Amino acid sequence: MILLTGSTGFIGGHVLRALSEKNLQVRCLSRKPMTSKNPNISYVTGDVLDYDSLVSATAGVDTVYYFIHMMGKQKEQERFDVLDRLAINNMVRACRTNGVRRIIHLTGMSNPDERLSRHLASRREVEEIIRNSGIDYTIFRASVIIGRGGGAFEILDTAVRKFPIIPVLDWENIQVQPIYIGDVVRYLIECLDKNETLNKGYDIGCSDVFTYRELMQQYAQELGLKRFFIKVPGSWRRLSALILGKLAPVDANVVYWLIESLGNNMVCEPGDLKKIFGFEPIPFRESIRKIIKKD
Ligand SMILES: NC(=O)c1ccc[n+]([C@@H]2O[C@H](COP(=O)([O-])OP(=O)(O)OC[C@H]3O[C@@H](n4cnc5c(N)ncnc54)[C@H](OP(=O)(O)O)[C@@H]3O)[C@@H](O)[C@H]2O)c1
User: Fold this and answer.
1) What's the pLDDT score for residue 295?
2) pLDDT surpasses 70 at 55
3) pLDDT tens digits, residue range 97-113?
4) What pLDDT was estimated at residue 170?
5) How crowded is residue 224: how many other Cβ atoms within 10 Å of its Cβ?
6) Smallest Cα–Cα separation from 176: which of 124, 220, 221, 212?
7) Please, which contacts does 168-172 make with residues 24 or more away whose CB atoms are closer than 8 Å?
8) CA-to-CA separations, 67 to 9, 10, 86, 89, 113, in angstroms, rounded
9) CA 171 – ligand 1 centroid, Å
10) What is the pLDDT of residues 222-264, one digit of tens each?
């Protein structure tokens, strides 16, 4: 039995569809009561901040997919890192209680040599707690995931579509290595059958490394939009978050914390993923074409 957390979210929703196609037995943790017509899919009501609910949710479970973050929609936004720590500690304890064998997790990519944003430092801490849990794990780290409903992608999409003149702030030369959602899901699903991925962490990204400015330029070109970039000194994070938080279909708190992370490079460490998985993620522009086709 697999326990899928975050199934109402961007990543968890995609993974649920992929797991359904494989006819695996999946139990989804959800804060609201939910039902499924698919006999392989069941729902358990619970909250990662409620340890007892996780003990019930993990009973009889072999593998947990952990796709939770606490940014946004919480009453105490300034404490999202505290809540994320509490949540993963609850999950690890519940997994130990019920003898769960493996945790598969997706997190944000970061360079340990840089001073990390609050969001990325918190992501790194959650990753460390899983690594030190004594439970087998597989962890993937991604930067911007290209797919409708993804927070970072929707902010990029809004900035490029809505602003003919785009202010270039202090993130101008920060580098990022995006990846298409379909490829992220392939890694997350296919690792289930690959024992060599046990107790490993991988950076995942396509072969393109762009600065944020180049990322927006490439996206605008693919959309057939002419965009002008003007350099503006400073970070203007609160103002950017205020404006994009109103325009993008993303929780305003999440927009703020993601914008703060624009100061950190997100480029993959070289690894042996191609050898293990037998595929390479598609290039950025191809992933954009796939999204535009579906829109
Ligand atoms: N999106 C990206 O571009 C991206 C890039 C790199 C890494 N990641 C990583 O992928 C993971 C999932 O992100 P996402 O983009 O899928 O986020 P998302 O769309 O915001 O989904 C978050 C999920 O967490 C659930 N959740 C929040 N608080 C909860 C609680 N107290 N108890 C139980 N469930 C709770 C939400 O359920 P409700 O419906 O109940 O709110 C929702 O299903 C995160 O670890 C993130 O760091 C994402």
Assistant:
1) 83
2) yes
3) 999 999 999 999 999 89
4) 87
5) 7
6) 212
7) 168/213, 168/229, 168/230, 168/231, 168/232, 169/232, 169/234, 169/235, 169/236, 169/240, 169/262, 170/233, 170/234, 170/235, 170/263, 171/212, 171/235, 171/262, 171/263, 172/211, 172/212, 172/213, 172/231
8) 8, 9, 15, 14, 25
9) 25
10) 999 999 999 999 888 889 999 999 999 999 889 999 998 999 9
Tell me the C-alpha distance between 55 and 117, whole Å. 32
Question: Does residue 141 surpass a pLDDT of 80?
Answer: yes
Name the closest-CA residue to atom 11, ligand 1: 67
**Ligand 1 centroid – CA 294 distance (Å):** 23
pLDDT higher than 70, residue 1: yes
What would the CATH number be for the domain defined by 2-294? 3.40.50.720
Q: Which two tokens stand for residue 56?
A: 């019930």
Tell the residue nearest (CA) to atom 15 of ligand 1: 10
Tokens 């298409």, residue located: 180
| pTM beyond 0.85 | yes
Give the model's pLDDT for residue 235: 82
Reading across the β-sheet that carries 136-142, which strands appear in turn?
Answer: 41-45, 26-30, 2-4, 63-66, 102-108, 136-142, 200-204
What are the residue ranges spanned by the domains of the chain?
2-294
Residues with CB under 6 A from ligand 1: 5-6, 8-12, 29, 31, 47-49, 67-70, 106-108, 123, 142, 144-145, 150-152
CA distance 193 to 22: 12
Q: Beta 145-146 vs 136-142: how paired, if at all?
A: unpaired
Looking from the CA of residue 142, the nearest atom of ligand 1 is 6
Q: Are the C-beta atoms of residues 269 and 203 closer than 8 Å to each other? A: yes
